[in-house]
Amino acid sequence: MSAPDSARRACKAVIPAAGLGTRFLPATKAMPKEMLPVVDRPAIEYVVREARAAGLDDILVITGRNKRALEDHFDRHPALEATLERKGDTRRIEMIRESDLVGDMHYVRQGQALGLGHAVACARRHVGQEPFAVLLGDDIIHSEDALLERMLEVQARYGGSVVALMEVPEEAVSSYGVAAVEAVEGEEDVVRVTGLVEKPARQDAPSTLAVIGRYVLDPAVFDVLDRTPPGRGGEIQLTDALQTLAAGDGEGYGVHAVVFRGRRYDTGDKLGYLQAVVEFATAHPELGADMTAWLKEFSADL
């Protein structure tokens, strides 16, 4: 499917962040999982920065109960700034101001935890009739691997929706939505999605290309979500709606994918979170050298 002559480029981002974070209990009993620190910044700040770097300044966060800390983090803190100013701590003032207003931030609550598809549907009024990006709040993409920018280019070229795919081991396919794909002439990293299966058994998976937490969606997805019944786990699955878009034809239909081969960190998983902390710490301008030296010493004793 080719893009219409009036192809529109997405300008808004949606970050679903209403999950309970049960995999990180008891740490997330009172703290949103998206606020768990990756060195000295909460995980969600890396995601917001990624949206900003891709030119998406209008950001809607889908929140839930006990998520007030997300709003506070992206707001000004005059009392803290005044305290730091009195101490002459200009470096830390600059750091917190980087976090204050990293975008035109909006928030809406997902009243019930009915799945990712339902969370995306909560963005309908804010998004309107324009394409938009969805970034999962616990998936971090390395800032040097411009996945989202590439996805925006592909959506503007071909229309419809675009997902991000990543090769995973066969034994891991049951943890993901998995895509059936076909090649796109002249493209190395772009494929057309012909089918999607949510968390298939290993023997039923159409490939080892798994959907990861980045999407650029046509607003046609909203009408499809309205008609999508609860699927796996009794939730409204975004994968099911994308399957309908991939299989259908018409305005806003069709799904392409960018096959991502860069660095991705699943901070919603304990091991993935710890790996992100270690990798970001070794690259940190202040901590990197000492952290790397300590890791070498520590690993030598294992």
What does this structure look like?
The strands form three sheets. This protein has a nine-stranded mixed beta sheet with strand order 5-4-1-6-11-8-12-10-9. Strands 2-3 form a two-stranded antiparallel ribbon. A two-stranded antiparallel sheet has the order 7-13. It is globular. The protein has two domains: 12-268, Alpha-Beta Complex (Spore Coat Polysaccharide Biosynthesis Protein SpsA, Chain A); 269-302, no CATH class. The chain is α/β, with parallel strands linked by helices. The termini are far apart. The longest helix has 13 residues, at 270-282. Helix 8 crosses helix 9 (238-247) and helix 10 packs across helix 11. The protein has helices at residues 43-53, 68-73, 78-86, 90-100, 116-121, 124-127, 147-158, 220-227, 238-247, 270-282, 288-300; strands spanning 12-16, 37-38, 41-42, 58-63, 104-109, 132-135, 139-141, 161-167, 177-183, 190-198, 209-217, 255-259, 264-266. It is built from eleven helices and 13 strands. InterPro entries: GalU_uridylyltTrfase_bac/arc, NTP_transferase_dom, Nucleotide-diphossugar_trans. One of its GO terms (molecular function) is UTP:glucose-1-phosphate uridylyltransferase activity. Keywords: Nucleotidyltransferase, Transferase. This is UTP--glucose-1-phosphate uridylyltransferase. Belongs to the UDPGP type 2 family.
